[in-house]
């Protein structure tokens, strides 16, 4: 019988569709914020164990992270392959599943329950294709928590979870179909100005006002906005402005966030903000501590992978607006950006309300309405379709050596720019 791994892949995902629907509903109906996704972690890992993956729970020292992997060495299963020739390259594909929610009442207003099952579907399909056809390759599903807060992908990257992958792929739900999603890089600085307390009436000259320093910095951020790129973003809040109005503030704390579309602009903006904070401290006689607690790099879409995924989606009936339009569509930020600067990858968006590309007026992510839509049967069908296209793109990476070589060439060129 002639081998048809793509057919086997699609059949495996279709067969698992109802199971994946139940996984999605369980996660959706029990929303858990970042690093507290214990039920989602258990639900997904228990299922993946039953599907024959080697599962590492609480991976990388993160309680709610996981890694599920299947390896086929070609002709023999890895545990029966002592005498097998393993000289041929072992191409490896990763998929990401997110499953954290926003705080109530929004809950799964970003549809991460659908990201979770799209990643599982992709991994199941590729595993079946490798297994049934004895194709040499590796599939790895990464359960990455806390995308909405501080991001689980960066520490997982640093601790080796993505090591050895030829590509890492994921999708995101939205109100429209977007192939070339263009999220901004996002950084978060936690800031503390340290001054000296004194009685604000009897002896204010004895004090050093930490609030004055933060206010000076805050106003300087506003001035900087006029001189920075229109695509850049700066947001800041004061989390502690002092202890009492009749005490010169000794400690003032706050948070500064910044965003940019390109890595070099992102890094430049960070340096400008740090310079402002340090200058404000010096001008007011304070000291300042600055801690970078989050850094999401801008997304580095690999065009070859993205176009291949798009071709598979279009074969399933999806319609796209074109790269020029995609890249101007408003968007937030994601820690998948960090992954795409470490290896080839992408992060397209799929419309959860229509398989024909029709947009529901007034629908946007991070809303209660979007959370409601993320539970529908239509949303499930769109996630399964995206999971199939993900899996087929992964199969292309495994099977097509020339394609994968060119994907790597494009990635390497992007890192030299």
Outline the structure in words.
- By secondary structure, this protein is of the alpha/beta class.
- The chain folds into 2 domains: 5-183 and 299-416, 3-Layer(aba) Sandwich (Aminopeptidase), CATH 3.40.630.10; 185-296, Alpha-Beta Plaits, CATH 3.30.70.
- The chain contains 12 helices and 12 strands.
- The chain has helices at 5-29, 38-50, 112-133, 153-158, 210-227, 263-283, 303-315, 323-326, 336-340, 368-373, 377-399, 401-416; strands at 54-57, 66-72, 92-97, 137-143, 167-169, 172-174, 185-194, 233-240, 251-260, 287-296, 345-346, 349-351.
- A hairpin with an 8-residue loop joins strand 1 and strand 2 (66-72).
- The chain is elongated and about 90 Å long.
- The model is unreliable at 76-85 (pLDDT under 50).
- Belongs to the peptidase M20A family.
- This is Peptidase M20 domain-containing protein 2.
- Residues 185-282 form the Peptidase M20 dimerisation domain.
- InterPro entries: Amidohydrolase, Bact_exopeptidase_dim_dom, Peptidase_M20, Peptidase_M20/M20A_hydrolases, Peptidase_M20_dimer, Xaa-Arg_dipeptidase.
- GO terms for molecular function: dipeptidase activity.
